[in-house]
Amino acid sequence: GQNIDQPTEMTATEGAIVQINCTYQTSGFNGLFWYQQHAGEAPTFLSYNVLDGLEEKGRFSSFLSRSKGYSYLLLKELQMKDSASYLCAVIMEYGNKLVFGAGTILRVKS
Amino acid sequence: GAVVSQHPSRVICKSGTSVKIECRSLDFQATTMFWYRQFPKKSLMLMATSNEGSKATYEQGVEKDKFLINHASLTLSTLTVTSAHPEDSSFYICSATSDYGSYNEQFFGPGTRLTVL
Question: What angle (nearest 5°) sits at the alpha carbon of residue A43, between those of residues A40 and A46?
């Protein structure tokens, strides 16, 4: 089976830095995505990692360690609008299917 | 670019009726479309994968006679929830991908909120 674990909820303060972790055990692996989803809306793409290391894109960075089955999403200079659910998803080699974690609800407080 | 639309955005229907949801890729040809459902505060669960011109591949536990999927063209896939019941109430999201895209990224539609009374 496929197993992707993320913390259920996190709270952080506006202007701070927060790290959302994701561990995975899947039968295949062709990369890992992070998505942001606001309530009642579709997920929006944040990042994609397929090689080990850190990918930086503005206030958002994502890290991958394939040997450890581990990724994290780092959000800097938090803003109130960053309050959302953050989904970690592994794309499988066969059929390009995405397997999602349960998502981490991030609450940013002032 | 890479815009996916869904219609309707919300639908309320009576138990026993059928509901059709459309998913369109507006500015690219989608070789593959995916259908997900999402319960409140839960993650997306893949229901089926559809490729243009062929039968959809359903995930384990998803009734293919209940959730009819048609991918008639490279820009349109439809999901029909047949004889809907209250337990089918959910948020249904489609995504589309293209062989020409980068790293097989899936582009998501805005979702359809189905409420069955």
Answer: 145
DSSP H or E run through A94: none
Does residue B101 register a pLDDT over 60? no
Query: Can you read off the two tokens belonging to residue B30?
Result: 């989608």
- Chain B residues whose CB is inside 8 A of the A96 CB are 32, 97, 104, 106
Distance CA B47, CA A109 (A): 35
pLDDT digits (tens, 9 = 90+) for A2-54: 899 999 999 999 999 999 999 999 988 989 999 999 988 889 999 999 999 99
d(CA B25, CA B107): 9
Angle at B27 between CA B67 and CA A96, to 5 degrees: 50
Cα B34 from Cα B46, distance rounded (Å): 7
**Beta carbon pairs, A and B, within 8 Å:** 49
- Round to whole Å and give the CA distance between A6 and B41: 13
A101 interaction partners in chain B (CB closer than 8 Å): 43
